[in-house]
Amino acid sequence: MSVPRRRLMFIGTVLLVIVAAGVTWFVVNRDDDDEPGRLGRAIALAPKDTLRFSWTDWAGIREELGSDVSAASSDDDVADFLSKGFDADLTSASALGESAPIMQARYGVSPASADWEMLAQGEHEALLLVGLPKSLDLDTLADNLEELGYPRPDDADGVWMAGPDVLARIGQVTQELAFVAIDADRHVLAASDEAETLESWRTSQRGTDDEDGVSAVVDHVEGALSASVYDGDYACVALSMTDADDADRIRAAELIEQAGEVNPLRGFAIAALPAGEVRIAMGFESEDQARTNADSRAKLASGPAPGQGGAFSDRYELGPVKADGDVVTMELDPLPQSYTFSDLANGPLIFATC
């Protein structure tokens, strides 16, 4: 499994949601009395025009796996943690896996100690957000960046502009770390391979007032250890049967006709939850559409899997499929040795057809 490509080619019209100024911000760090809405608050920090959100709850994964890795752990211990996370199908949404050894040794934060990570991908840009552990001193992080070769900005909230040349000297790290900024108020590290993305980020965030299809489905996958969340228009392209071969497209059309009415998605989310469960949430324009699509998409999710191969029953047992307001949720119980979350996060996916 590979991390989804960082640039998204989007076909069709993108619905841009204009968010009012004056947003109330939240610190999105994990603690023992964590309130609901943790994923949603992280998504609020992403740019308004984000089409795909890839979430990894590193603190939650460490807890789920019973791992005690930390900023002081050895390379071998970190590698073992990541290997177990991969086997549990909890790390495919991360952009930091291959960067972990150098981040652990030289940056002072890595998947072994980070609170959470989100990769926000738009049509032309991508932004990586990392929730920093409360134990990490931000002055120490700044000193580490300077020692690595990032020129220190004049302002504390400025952009540290390393660029590809500095990254090449550092070693094997993602290009998303070419330019970084430290948000001290929210204890978040923001990064991108383009300086302009960071320079505009603070004034282009979604905020918490949005009530679009993304926020609707996110409410139903809170608590996710790993999640992929799509804007509705993007989901209708990325998960469509377009990339399937001719035989699979013909078979899919037959199955969709047999299943009944399906309507376009306003939002889509797939989440890996604690205890190995997977949940899917799909948003629609109305409660009536949600009730209709709960029936039709349950049929599609329990039959053949054209474009994926075989049948969905080879991957999971389908649990309850429910309409809750204008959102349909599906509970999936993955079979042993199946990678249900990472397999279904990318199309073609017949039961997510528009």
From TrEMBL:
Keywords: Membrane, Transmembrane, Transmembrane helix
Region annotated Disordered, chain positions: 291-315
Spans traversing the lipid bilayer: 7-28
Name of protein: DUF3352 domain-containing protein
Protein source organism: Nocardioides humilatus
